[in-house]
Amino acid sequence: MLDHLQDGDGSSRVGRWKTDDTLRVRGRVWRVRSVTPGHACAVVYLRCLEPLPPSTACPAAIITPFDRPRAVAGGSGGLASPAQLLAHLEATRVSQRPADGLWASLEASITLLPHQLEPALAALVHGATRMLVADDVGLGKTIQAGLLIAELTVRTSELRVLVLVPAGLRDQWHAELEDRFHIVAVDADAGWLRAVARDRPADVNPWALGGVYVASHDFVKRPDVLRPLESVAWDLLVVDEAHALGPGTDRRTAAHALAVRSRRVLLLTATPHRDDARAFQALCETGQSRAGEPLLLFERSRAVIAVSTARRAVVLGVEPSPAERRMHALLEIYTARLWRDAQLRRDRPAALVAIVLRKRALSSAASLARSLRRRIALLGQDFREDLVQAGLPFADEDPLPDEEPHEVLAAPGLSDAAGERRWLIRLAAAAEEAARAESKVERLVRLTRRIREPLLVFTEYRDTLRRLEIALRADGCRALLMHGGLGPRERAGTQREFCRTGHVLLATDAASEGLNLHVRCRVLVHYELPWSASRIEQRAGRVDRLGQTRRVHELAFVANHTAERLVLAPLLRKIVQANRTGTRPGVLHALGEVRLAGTILGEAPLEPAVPSPLPPFVEVPPASLGRDAAVEAGRLECLRRGLVRARAGQHPGRGDGPVLAAVRPTRNSTTLEPGLALVYRLSVCTALGHLHVEAFVLHVHLAAASPVFRRRSAFQRAVLVLLTAAPSKLREALARSTEVALERARTVDTKLEEAMRTREAAMLEVCGSAARQLLQPGLFDRRSIRRAEARARALDALRSAASRPRDPKGRDLEVETSLVAAVLVRPPKRKCR
Hints:
Elements: E1 3-6, E2 12-15, E3 22-25, E4 28-37, E5 42-48, E6 61-64, E7 70-71, E8 78-79, H1 82-94, H2 114-124, E9 130-133, H3 141-155, E10 160-165, H4 170-181, E11 186-187, H5 190-199, E12 211-216, H6 217-220, H7 223-229, E13 236-239, H8 250-259, E14 265-268, H9 277-284, E15 295-298, E16 312-318, H10 322-345, H11 348-363, H12 365-378, H13 417-434, H14 439-450, E17 455-459, H15 462-474, E18 479-482, H16 488-501, E19 504-508, E20 523-526, H17 533-540, E21 553-559, H18 563-581, H19 586-589, H20 593-602, E22 618-619, H21 623-648, E23 659-663, E24 675-685, E25 691-700, H22 712-725, H23 728-764, H24 770-774, H25 783-803, E26 814-825
Parallel strand pairs: 8-23, 9-14, 9-15, 10-12, 10-13, 11-12, 13-14, 15-22, 16-21, 17-19, 17-20, 18-19, 20-21, 23-26
Antiparallel strand pairs: 1-2, 3-4, 3-7, 4-5, 5-6, 24-25, 24-26
Helix pairs in contact: 1-21, 2-3, 2-21, 3-4, 10-11, 10-13, 11-12, 12-13
């Protein structure tokens, strides 16, 4: 076996490596696992003996003589002062990697909140493979996903993580991962894919290399993009805004196809559609394989996790002009007749027309007039809902729904077509009259004059947004616009400009998801209230979220004598009260657009309802997980303080041997007993390749007359003699402490290995391609046959390995025990009388 050793003077010599040798290379200490000789070189497979920070590549092997390792010789140790000893012990303490704890979270640039640690602990300690985080808006779901990614980064070599987000949130995810967790992710869009395909051979999958990839929902659902993604076994799939995975959509098909091929799945959403049993069932089944793995549901409110909310909601009544009141009165008569006829005929398109027209009227009179004129023009045309052509999924992002729904307005309504046409002409004239001077527009202009701080205004439709922008500009106020007509980069640029110097930001609901505006803004205005409880919370979550240090003011413009005053304004008050008290009335869980439409248009009472029951495979976290997270947050916070002290101190050791020091506690100290304290470091490499590092202390009682109490040189010699002799009591105590740490590592490793073995067996059973379902397949080839045969062989091997009996005590654990420090604790001095 050839190897390349480097002497202290920089010269080189040829030597031989063997298994279990210790060497230093690339700035760290490694243990040799095996050596494969070659012609004039050798491949040395390594295991790192030091914890690695997040996003640090851990080489599995080096090639000598191209890499230049140094042999690590055991030093004889060095004497240290008490201050140096303290710094050395702090460095040892912060380098621990307990089997039942978190590692990378120590250096993450976040505030350690216990509820944010729970998903990572559930996955990495208890073996959860599918999780849904459905916390309230603004409670840090991105942070929870980033923590899990960072922890997997230090545990898994060649980690493959795919993060699916709305296209407008890609830049925000990149910034969060890099700034908070020091993880540089790949921006996987069409431009990146073209560049990779150009630079790599045609037979190389562009997604095969390890890393963290951030892509949009609409990009991965493209058949040409999804097909190579299905060929990769992902270590973790994260789906942000998972409520967008509606049942039967291409987004859901693509996300599920990738989820069943992932070892772990993490779904994030603040609006899990508990009011829609079918949509909630489809969301919970995302990534579920034939093995039927359970889904762990985290659904926590602000009051439950003790996050104080200082939001103040104010309803600003706006008195409509006589022309606006006449418009609303006529519209109520028309839509009530339309709704009744649609319910009798079970005509869904006609019911949608009634909803759209009422919502357009509450948005602005000009928007209603535009929709009425378009409906008059479309009514004479042939309408068939099933013939609407869907757009081809060849863009990074589908159009965001904040435009007027043209195809809905073409649906037939009343049975008397001529009478309906006369009604529409009369309504359009009334709306055009009311649009000449709208009371809500005037109220917003006055508000922007009075408020001297940044203002966020939400409206539902893009044409209303432009009308508000024109009115504010005429008053001398420059407003920034954010809507679905802008591309993801344009929306990100608008967000940066507003957070830097903006005064008024006008936004539609299409741009509301994921925006972090709490640093700049605390005043939110609902220009019109949405017909959904979850959308109200989505809007408020842009400014009322973790990190907001000021009181949030939520203002709602409500037109008097309309459904906004009678139905929607009380709904807003109930939501704010529920957030303040921590109670969740059943009616809030099921207040979607359909139920509110029945109340507004059909004048049905809004009866309390309960959310959809959880499917049988959905589980809630045990209470013990919350307690473990609280303990872990305290441990990490203590280690963070120690990390600061350790970095401020200097390493006192000489060579690589133990540090020797003598201390004398005060008379009031009760924690240190006289004797010799031996600090050991235990490194355990599990069968999954995880390196656990823990420290423990053994205490040896020494006679008071021992010469080691008199001179430090004698103390050094005595300690070395004691360690060399290795008395039986010391060996027994060391074995007991080691076994405790090993049992903890075995327990965690058994859970994780069992969960991964079950999940990987289910992944191998996945057959078929979702990409082929989204696009016509090609002609015959034998690649799918060869892949199926290879999958069958791997599945048989996995089942054979799982059927063999396993002895928990005989698991493959590589153990390394080393002495870190020996501390002589002297008796306290006696006072002289």
